[in-house]
Specification:
Two copies of one chain form a homodimer. The first copy, chain A, has helices at residues 57-64, 121-126, 128-131, 135-157, 198-206, 244-263, 275-282, 299-302, 308-312, 329-340, 370-380, 395-412, 490-499, 504-517, 532-539, 570-575, and strands at residues 18-30, 34-41, 44-51, 71-80, 93-104, 161-162, 180-182, 190-192, 211-219, 231-240, 272-274, 296-297, 315-321, 350-354, 360-362, 387-393, 423-427, 432-435, 440-443, 470-475, 478-485, 525-531, 578-580. The first copy, chain A, is an alpha+beta fold. Chain A has three domains: 12-104, Beta Barrel (OB fold (Dihydrolipoamide Acetyltransferase, E2P)), CATH 2.40.50; 124-272 and 419-584, 2-Layer Sandwich (BirA Bifunctional Protein, domain 2); 291-412, Gyrase A, domain 2, CATH 3.30.1360.30. In chain A, the strands form five sheets. The first copy, chain A, has an eight-stranded mixed β-sheet with strand order 6-9-10-22-21-20-17-11, sandwiched between helices. A five-stranded mixed β-barrel of chain A has the order 1-2-3-5-4. In chain A, β1 and β2 form a beta hairpin. In chain A, α4 (135-157) crosses α15 and α13 (490-499) runs antiparallel to α14 (504-517). β23 (578-580) of chain A pairs antiparallel with β23 (578-580) of chain B. Chains A, B: This is Aspartate--tRNA ligase. Chains A, B: It catalyses: tRNA(Asp) + L-aspartate + ATP = L-aspartyl-tRNA(Asp) + AMP + diphosphate. Chains A, B: Keywords: Aminoacyl-tRNA synthetase, ATP-binding, Cytoplasm, Ligase, Nucleotide-binding, Protein biosynthesis. Chains A, B: Its main location: cytoplasm.
């Protein structure tokens, strides 16, 4: 035993006890005749004191030699502190050191091990093991564990069985790009790492497992955008003999439980909106509803007023930014520049101040009178003091631009409070989306998603209009989970593959085992998967997932700490019957 | 909602209730005027009844058309059964069906979905989703979940934090063969799948995580022996500021907790034996101690008695098989044939009956008198009625042979009761083992294992004699967990790599990040990993792990259900800059 207590648990009740502690030197203050050391471990910090008059000389000298991050073990007596620190769990006491052992020395770390560090992203990633000593990262990992435990216990108590599905599976060209694994024993053949356990969880339903979940790593070999990882973690769930309503209730229950247990927050029944409504109202299928600024469609009231830009536009939309009537010309111009950036791509923006005296003042007063502008205010829900911003153009693009503006304004206005949680369901996603490049329909969710029975008649005529029994759970502007009722009928599944442009052979080759399984009594079933990394980050009130992953990869998919990926031995390649193709 | 109850919960208290059930047709008995159907789901079986006089004619006819494994939904009234079945949870009642919906039809399954099936291993693997419907497999998966939940809750309550370590890591030539994953974004480079999270858990200790665990998939690309899987699951654990004693106590606590919670069995404090004692006494470092038959070394008492075989042998060892004095000549010969099989490799076996009258009768009476044989009995602990079996030859080989014989006899004698659990610790493993082929030492555990400080002086002279602070937990003849105190000193770690024949460059290239980490204040630490698949199988009283894995692979590493691995698109290979080498 290297310690009798951790560095986070001693308080006034332990005064006069002899204790042994071990940990890292956070910092030390040497006043010549007196040395204070902050000793740190996972659980907290305890102040040590060495006093020229009361401490053995050898030990006192040894204490002087300690550097930051040295690992030490001390014995001593718990004494009352002269100047107590009420902000610290152990702030009432300190340890008068009688023995001191250096367990390991430490070089000066490349960045400070403090809550606010001087280390940049790159250096912290390279020395991730030091970064993890910092409270923000350490606490994020502990928080992740707490969330995962709550999820497991909740689902387990509800009768769900966690089943481990395989990691070495079969590659399918559908969807995102697979990571593949050459098989040594099966020459010229490859496994793939799962993008999700989708087919396995459906097979578990065919197998009568009834309620399945798994917290599981998934893999996608995609070019990494910021905050995407090639390996990520899902809470993967599936239930048999359920309808959409059952699934929504089940997982709304889970999320409500999490918010209560890990955040102490009780939320009402989740609002439910359709995909169509979400796109119309927020320009987005994962709306942040912690604030308003809902879209007002202005086509009707802006057309035929001699303003050529609006007249030429397919779509005109406005939002009312609360309290922004006070924006200066400079602030407005900055915002116009913001929407004109290539990432957003608007060609310009019209604005209209709703003055506190009730008058309206727009950048297009030449074309629109007070009467017209009043209608804008009405439709966008603007109140005196607000500013209406208007964008126009192609419907889809303009919605996307306005959605980005809405989020940006909310951020600038401080309306995206990380301690406020506004979950909702978005329902009735389209079954298919048209892909211009390949000239065919793709499954919006995946090829196993069930169409709504009442839309099935559109399959031969307007497949793009078929809605799916698919749903997303959205939290604070992020899709945190998504799922669907699955097809459980082999004929319908075959028709779906056909619709998605699979030949019979391709369907058979890739998903034959699933279609085959459906011939032996598949129950109605459906499910959902949460992205755990994102969920934990949002619950933790953070924008980025990186601190909630112990050893994340950078945007090139590299682990800079261990320097992976790397070249491998020729012998290894030879055994696997593969070779590297060198491109000149 | 497809059901108001599951098929496992209705009893006499529900009589007269209108209920809805859904599930699979287990079987039906059609008596012409009356049809009984066993409806099955994960939770049990409920008997349905349709009666020509009481059931609507259309429904009655529909019920006649149902085949095995059809998925149906029924509504009906809970009624008291005429002939109750006390062996069934729902045996007091049946459902008088008033509505019947076929949710999905089913082809006749390729094997019977019964506890004792007529399906062979291969067909059951191909249709694993049907195999999972069978109680033995389904219950094994539910049991595995229960064990995993107990492990997580126990460790979490003890302050352990589950941290997910990466799956895409770096390949190291040391140890078993890695599965590798080509990186598309880093041309000519490869990730490896982890054989264990060993280095990451050590880095987490350097990072101050203090108590870590993870239930995690690991991967080894080895030729598969029976009951080995290329992907397997570990309960991986690590602690900082601990000595060996702390770890033994911690994980003995976990195992005791598991035995109590999932088996209802209380076990005493685990016996602890050294590796040396285990080899001497059981010829094996994972002894089954549910029974005796400990080795008696007979060198002293068998030499110089004119029996040339013993005189020529390096090692003579005997065991006393309880109650086997009654073995017939035929039985003895069969056993001699058994030890002479190539898998065991003995050249012969001597035996000695300890008759109930106290006399001894051996196969080498020509050379040994009663006095001599009495000594054999004394040393092997034989009692009247027992049979002493003696093997001789090279020490290591003979121990291995005798160990196999001991296990075989125990099996034949019914001494390996799957409901009895005899855990123990084996301590003080050698640090190194000599590898004839490569002419150098290998780490017996892994290169991070700490030597015993008191043996360190042997490093320059007799490294093979250095004992490690390494330990295995053994249960019923299986190693279920193993671990060690790790080296946390960078100089000692460097010396270890040197001892293992690593050049400085190789050590730096492969483990530089770990040695680097040790420069920044590594705490003393150690840990252990359990093999979950095996642990669950043993707790479940089974010999084979396969039923405790939802989708296992066969001995060629193939998943015959999904037909993986498989060939992949040339486009995929091209993107990854690799090609398949065709061997003619």
């Amino acid at each position: 035993m290297f310690r009798s207590y951790t560095c986070g648990e001693l308080n006034a009740s332990h005064i006069n006890q002899e204790v042994t502690l071990a940990g890292w030197v956070q910092k030390s203050r040497d006043k010549g005749f007196m040395i204070w050391i902050d000793l740190r471990d996972r659980y907290g910090i305890t102040q040590l004191i060495l006093d020229e008059n009361r401490t053995d000389k050898t030990i006192f000298e040894k204490a002087k030699s300690l550097g930051r991050e040295f690992v030490i073990q001390v014995k001593g007596t718990v004494i009352e502190r002269e100047s107590k620190n009420p902000n610290m769990a152990t702030g009432e006491i300190e340890i008068l050191v009688s023995e001191l052992t250096i367990l390991n020395e430490a070089q000066l770390p490349p960045f400070t091990i403090e809550d606010e560090t001087d280390g940049g992203e790159d250096i912290r990633m390279k020395y991730r093991y030091l970064d993890i000593r910092r409270n923000p990262v350490k606490n994020s990992l502990l928080f992740r564990h707490k969330v995962a435990m709550e999820v497991r216990n909740y689902l387990s108590n509800q009768g769900f069985c966690e089943v481990e599905t395989p990691y070495l599976i079969k590659s399918t060209p559908e969807g995102a790009r697979d990571f593949i694994v050459p098989s040594r024993m099966n020459e010229g053949q490859f496994y793939a790492l799962p993008q999700s356990p989708q087919t396995f969880k459906q097979l578990l339903m065919v197998g009568g497992m009834d309620k399945y979940f798994q917290i599981v790593k998934c893999f996608r070999d995609e070019d990494l955008r910021a905050d995407r990882q090639p390996e990520f973690t899902q809470i993967d769930c599936e239930m048999a003999f359920v309808e959409q309503e059952d699934i929504l209730n089940q997982f709304e229950g889970l999320t409500r439980h999490l918010l209560k247990e890990v955040k102490g927050i009780e939320v009402d029944k989740f609002p439910r909106i359709t995909y169509e409504y979400a796109m119309k109202t927020y320009g987005n299928d994962k709306p942040d509803i912690r604030f308003g600024m809902e879209f007002g469609e202005l086509n009707e009231v802006t057309k035929h007023k001699d303003f050529p830009v609006f007249n030429a536009a397919e779509f005109v939309v406005g939002i009312a930014a609360p309290g922004c009537a006070s924006y200066t010309r400079k602030e407005i111009d900055a915002l116009i520049d913001w929407v004109k950036r290539p990432q957003i791509g608007a060609t310009g923006m019209i604005y209209c101040k709703y003055e506190l005296d009730g008058s309206l003042k727009s950048s297009v007063d030449k074309f629109f009178d007070q009467e017209d502008l009043k209608k804008w205010a009405e439709i966008t829900g603007a109140k005196p003091g607000d500013m209406i911003f208007v964008l126009c153009g192609n419907t889809d693009k303009t919605r996307t631009q306005m959605s980005a503006l809405r989020m940006e304004l909310a951020t600038r206005l401080g309306l995206r409070n990380p301690n406020e949680f506004a979950p909702l369901w978005v329902l009735d996603f389209p079954l298919l989306e048209w892909d211009e490049e390949s000239g065919r329909y793709h499954a919006m969710h995946h090829p196993f998603t069930s169409p709504k029975p009442e839309d099935l008649h559109l399959i031969g005529t307007e497949p793009g209009k078929i809605r799916a029994n698919a749903y997303d759970m959205v939290l604070n502007g992020n899709e945190i989970g998504g799922g669907s009722i699955r097809i459980h009928d082999k004929d319908l599944q075959a028709r779906m593959f056909e619709l998605l442009g699979f030949s019979k052979e391709e369907a058979e080759n890739q998903f034959g085992f699933l279609m085959n399984a459906f011939q032996y009594g598949a129950p109605p079933h459906g499910g959902l998967a949460f992205g755990l990394d994102r969920l934990v980050a949002i619950l933790g009130g953070q924008e980025t997932i990186r601190d909630f992953i112990a050893f994340p990869k950078n945007n090139s998919g590299r682990d800079v700490m261990i320097d992976a990926p790397s070249t491998i031995d020729d012998k290894q390649l030879e055994e696997l019957n593969i070779s590297v193709v060198v491109n000149n």
